[in-house]
Amino acid sequence: MNSDFQNKTFIFLERLWLVGVVLGIILVIYFLIMKDNDSALFFFGFFILASIIYLMRKRQRKKHEAYLKHKEEEKNISKK
Asked: Cβ neighbours of residue 51 under 8 Å, at least 6 residues apart?
């Protein structure tokens, strides 16, 4: 698997979880307005879970990008 495809996959998954975070916030607000506290609590839990996974994916992508940059620098140094 090439690094460009991996990076695009990391970005896609990161954005997918970000959409989950936004959807969770919207549904929590909706169910609070509708006075359905049980559903609001469920989607609040979903919001927390999606937020944690989003942050983990973002951190994973940044570490991968740093690794690729470091690998590229080592490759350029060894060519000189």
From this structure: 21, 24
The CA-CA-CA angle for residues 55, 44, 8, to 5°, reads 30
Q: Please, which contacts does 49-54 make with residues 24 or more away whose CB atoms are closer than 8 Å?
A: 50/17, 50/20, 50/21, 50/23, 50/24, 51/21, 51/24, 53/17, 53/20, 54/14, 54/17, 54/18, 54/20, 54/21
pLDDT digits (tens, 9 = 90+) for 37-76: 999 999 999 999 999 999 999 999 999 889 988 988 888 8
pTM exceeds cut of 0.70: yes
Contact by Cβ (8 Å): 47, 28: yes
